[in-house]
Amino acid sequence: MTLFRLGYVSMSVQVENCSPSQTVTWKSFSNISDRDAAIGKVRSVAQSNIENCLRLLKHNNANGIKFFRMSSRIIPLATHEELADWDYKAELTPFFQELGGYARKKGMRVGFHPDHFVVLNTPKKEVLKQSIYNLVYHYNMLAAMGEEPVHKCVLHIGGSYGNKEESLERFIENWAKISPRIQNTVILENDDKTFNVEDVLYLSEKLEVPHVFDLHHHAANHNDSDWTKYWERIVDTWKHSPSPVKIHISSPKSEKQFRAHADYVDSEMFRQFMKEVSGTIPQVDCMIEAKQKDAALFKLVEDLKKDPDIKWHEGAVFETQ
DNA sequence: CGCTGTCAAGACGAA
DNA sequence: TTCGTCTTGACAGCG
């Protein structure tokens, strides 16, 4: 018996005018001569983003969706050094509290996937510094929400820099320079070009970091295409986590653009995955990464409803034998 | 009003 | 070494 929860990424294609990623660019910030007014602009955009994120959570709850990836762009310019003196935490905490309070009350799992500028295996000191600063920003948002800031930020291992083995080892060296509280926010995903499941498992097991397995990336980048032989080890990386195993699901856009995300996910592919996983663990949370966002999730649910073996709990939560 | 180019941030490969 | 591309949603600017 396995409980599946489906989630989706950041924004809805159904709820209108509800972007949680409105922004103020550095360029437009700089064009405002009154700095207080400029900060005010950033503050109001951030508040609006948090409000819209809350509206999305309410939309999710109404549809039985208990799993969600929040936008990393909630606070524009939060990690820009020119705004380092702005205490966004103090000013925005009440808004984040409401957001986190709602998620908690409804039993929702929320998390982040920081942008690709966060590269922990970089050889450049400055890039590592900025990356850690970016993770601190994510930590601060989680803390302000009252969320336990553990295993909530999905990252890739990083670049290969011409030598994959060295770059894998550099991750470990750099990891040692990061405080435990920030280390604890991180979970690691296999990518579609360089670091495959075996590489992530190597780090995950060594550093005790849960591995977020991405099925689509695995199809694009693997040593052995049969992922099931890694499954037990993947599950094992979650044994000390407060959260259930997390998986990424998406389908290739086309044969030619294999690595790009399709509008929807292939429900046959999902069904295959579901069959393999059923019975191996009590619960798995599946992040649907598709261009059509929540609409793709709803379409998958429609398809899965035809399956008589599935027992439905809520809109996007179900149980298999 | 709608289309196009630009936007904090990194990595990579082509020229 | 420099530049375009990747990828992506928002937005400013332009016609």
What this model shows, in words?
The chain is α/β, with parallel strands linked by helices. It has one domain (2-320): Divalent-metal-dependent TIM barrel enzymes (TIM Barrel, Alpha-Beta Barrel), CATH 3.20.20.150. It is built from eleven helices and ten strands. It has helices at residues 26-31, 35-62, 88-105, 125-145, 164-175, 180-183, 197-207, 215-220, 228-236, 267-277, 293-304; strands spanning 2-9, 67-69, 109-111, 153-156, 186-189, 211-214, 245-249, 283-288, 311-314, 317-320. Strands 1, 2, 3, 4, 5, 6, 7, 8, 9 and 10 form a ten-stranded mixed β-sheet that branches. α7 links the parallel β5 and β6. The longest helix has 28 residues, at 35-62. The chain is globular, with a radius of gyration of 20 Å. The model has no long low-confidence stretch (mean pLDDT 95).
Number of helices: 11
* Main beta-sheet annotation: 10 strands, mixed
CATH architecture title: Alpha-Beta Barrel
Task: Give the overall silhouette.
Answer: globular
Total E-strand runs: 10
Topology:
Layout: E1 2-9, H1 26-31, H2 35-62, E2 67-69, H3 88-105, E3 109-111, H4 125-145, E4 153-156, H5 164-175, H6 180-183, E5 186-189, H7 197-207, E6 211-214, H8 215-220, H9 228-236, E7 245-249, H10 267-277, E8 283-288, H11 293-304, E9 311-314, E10 317-320
Helix pairs in contact: 2-3, 3-4
The chain binds a DNA duplex (15 and 15 nucleotides) through helix 1 and helix 4.
Give a concise summary:
This protein is α/β, with parallel strands linked by helices and 321 residues long. The chain has 11 helices and 10 strands. Helix 3 links the parallel strand 2 and strand 3 (109-111).
